[in-house]
Amino acid sequence: MKTSLLTALLMAGLSGAIGGDAAWKWSGHFGDKAVEMLIIGDIQVHSRRADPTTAFNRMRDTLKKADLVYANLEGLLVKSAGTTIDIPDKPEWTHPGPDGVKALIASNIAVVGVANNVASGRANILESLSVLDANGILHTGAGRNIDEAHKPAIVERSGVKIGFLQYTARWYQEKDMIATATEAGVAKITSLDGITIAAVDLDRVKSDIRKLRPLVDIVVVSHHNRDGSTAVQFGAIRGTSAGRDRSKSEDYQKQLARTALDTGADLVFGHGTHTIQGVEVYNGKPILYAIGHSTFDQPGYEKSTDGLAARVVIQNKAIRRVSFVPVTRDGNNDVYLLDPSEGEGAKLVQWVKERSAAPPPMRIDGHEVVMFEKPPAATIAAYQRKETNSRSLLGEALGPFRSNGQR
Q1: How many Cβ atoms sit within 10 Å of the Cβ of residue 362?
Q2: Average pLDDT for residues 135-153, to the nearest whole number?
Q3: Domain layout of the chain by residue ranges
Q4: Alpha carbons 207 and 228: distance in angstroms, whole number
Q5: How much is the CA Rg of the chain, to the nearest whole Å?
Q6: Whole-number Å distance between alpha carbons of 128 and 184
Q7: Does an H or E element contain 394, and which?
């Protein structure tokens, strides 16, 4: 008996080193035509420069089985000049380096958002994007100018087109990071008080969604949370906050999420707070306000281990189910999935419920927590409505050309 127990413990402890955990067993039967997408938390590979492919040792099989994986890439893929130099206002920070892309390739991460507070230095941003391009990783949230920074990433899987947009509400020096009409940078949303978003930025988000909507079947919008703002991002003006409790969503997050969904997005999520926040279903559409970390190697955040891996099932070109599984990191700092019905996993599920201002009904189905689900007939109806709306939007966009006799 003791020998069997010891063997089991040794095998559990060695699982990360020997090649990872088995692929997660998801619930439900959605047919061969369904597309299953995983959205995971912030990716950082600082301490894995020797071998970035180890970043998802314990989740790799799960990620490889997904049709598509999306995440916020926290860190530029450029050679580090050292602490206090890479981002002077974040002196402990160092860029992970161009080999960081190997972590994405090895784990089936085909598209990333790059608008966040550590995308610093206009030349560095462009160099990092070139590394992604050279390796076939699609990206959104940054570019050679503001128009490119606001361009979506569009991915097609099994005939389903999914479009991604990403913004950041947190940054350091605007002159080094924020895209302009003529300079490279990231796409931003400005909230000075944590309550409202600057009208010009909110209008741009709505415009981005309206342009994207007729081109795809599913629109996903995410942003890097303001998290109280940095001390320098608004120059001499200090951003205000109702309190820096990272577990609580700020009001501007709700404004962004609901506006995006009202404008035509299908799902909204946030990242960058180093912990998980609540969830919501707004007018029949899902919101995850902050999904925390996935693989995260930045020194100083060893105890910030909580995160969520969200599963999005798309059927009949509409979202059928959104569920999540809590994640944490082990003694080797390897991220892994947790059973939501027991132990640490159950604790993180309770956190999600407690941190949700208006928690939707949640249920554990197998090894995942279902927060949103439509019956099959509803997804068919949603698809038909979306097709009609898309044709209408496309017709409006082509109106001026048709009036000039162009077809």
Answers
A1: 18
A2: 98
A3: 24-400
A4: 26
A5: 21
A6: 12
A7: helix 376-403
- Residues 6 or more apart in contact with residue 262 via CB below 8 angstroms: 283
Average pLDDT of the segment spanning 120-127: 98
pLDDT digits (tens, 9 = 90+) for 23-77: 999 999 999 999 999 999 999 998 888 899 999 999 999 999 999 999 999 999 9
Contacts of 267 (CB under 8 A, 6+ apart): 218, 219, 220, 221, 285, 286, 287, 312, 319, 322
Architecture of the domain made up of 24-400:
4-Layer Sandwich (3.60)
Q: Return the SS3 of 176.
A: helix
Convert 240-257 to b/e letters by CB count within 10 Å (16 or more is b).
ebeeeebebbbebbbbbb
Q: Which two tokens stand for residue 243?
A: 């309190």
In angstroms, rounded to a whole number, what is the distance separating the alpha carbons of residues 302 and 292? 13
Read off φ and ψ for residue 35, nearest 5 degrees: -110, 130
- Sheet of 218-224: strand order equals 153-157, 160-168, 218-224, 267-271, 285-288, 279-282
Question: Look-up: residue for tokens 């998290």?
Answer: 227
CB neighbour list of residue 32: distance below 8 Å, 6 or more residues apart:
none
Distance of alpha carbon 191 from its chain centroid, rounded? 20
| Runs of H (alpha helix) within 144-225 | 146-149, 174-177, 199-212
- Answer for the pair 39, 310: CB distance below 8 angstroms, yes or no: yes
